[in-house]
Amino acid sequence: MTPGKYALYKLSAHKIFRPLTDRLFKVLHFLRFAQWVEENQQLEYNDFRADGSVYKRRYNVHELIAAKLKDEPIHYLEFGVADCETLLWWISQNKHPESLFFGFDTFTGLPEDWGHYKKGTFDLQGVIPTVADKRVTLIKGLFQETLFNFLKTFPNDKKKFISLDADLYSATLFVLTTLAPWLRVGDILVFDEFSAQEHEYLAYTHFCKAFPHIGLKAFAAANNYACVAFEVISISAAP
Ligand SMILES: C[S@@+](CC[C@H](N)C(=O)[O-])C[C@H]1O[C@@H](n2cnc3c(N)ncnc32)[C@H](O)[C@@H]1O
User: Fold this and answer.
1) Integer Cα distance of 39 and 33 in angstroms
2) Per the CB 3.0–4.6 Å rule, which of 122, 209, 234, 237 could disulfide with 215?
3) Phi, then psi, of 176 in degrees rounded to 5
4) Within 13 Å and on the Cβ side, how many CA atoms surround 73?
5) How many angstroms separate the CA atoms of 53 and 86, rounded?
6) Residue whose CA is closest, atom 20 of ligand 1?
7) Which atom of ligand 1 is least distant from the CA of 124?
8) Residue of 83, 131, 161, 165 to mutate, ligand 1, most atoms within 8 A of C-beta
9) What pTM, to 2 d.p., does this model score?
């Protein structure tokens, strides 16, 4: 700590300014996000600046990706699968018998508060949904407790479609950093709440800083950047 900062510390600046820090944090990340938006407008699909937010508009992004993948075999990994709405849509789109679909969730809802949404939101009482498709596996538990074990036997020999729909910074950053060594050029990542600047967007920026050798390119956005799709376009040797 420099002498100037030590003086501020001794003056209890952190206590005096505590009520301001959350607000400043929000403003800072909004400004950074706004900069990112300005630099990422020319996408294959982008509804910015659409009126309001229509939940179903996210499927415009998914349809674009499904069309790109046609019916090739994929490994579908969804983090925050909840009642499987998106996963069910995908199994109806991709019929390849070698495609595998993995959905991860606590099935007891969010493990911590997310803005106004309280811990436990999206609770399915711990009941894993039933999906009558042999290609689907649902994995119950915190990603932080299930993903390492899952990866021990994951073949990673097909293009991956990775859906990041856990909302939370902690969960999203954990998944991104854990999957980093498994990413391959051509893999697709979709953030479902990217415009939540202190959560998925922040996790994305921290991931990019920690893994600068993995090139991600945004190519589609719906609901004014709530749902954003990226492709892994390059992977060089780790620095
Ligand atoms: C917005 S909901 C998912 C909605 C779903 N993808 C859809 O398309 O209908 C977010 C889900 O993420 C799950 N979740 C968040 N953090 C998690 C974590 N660390 N481990 C496991 N599940 C988590 C919650 O339980 C919740 O069901």
Assistant:
1) 10
2) 234
3) -60, -45
4) 8
5) 18
6) 142
7) 27
8) 165
9) 0.96
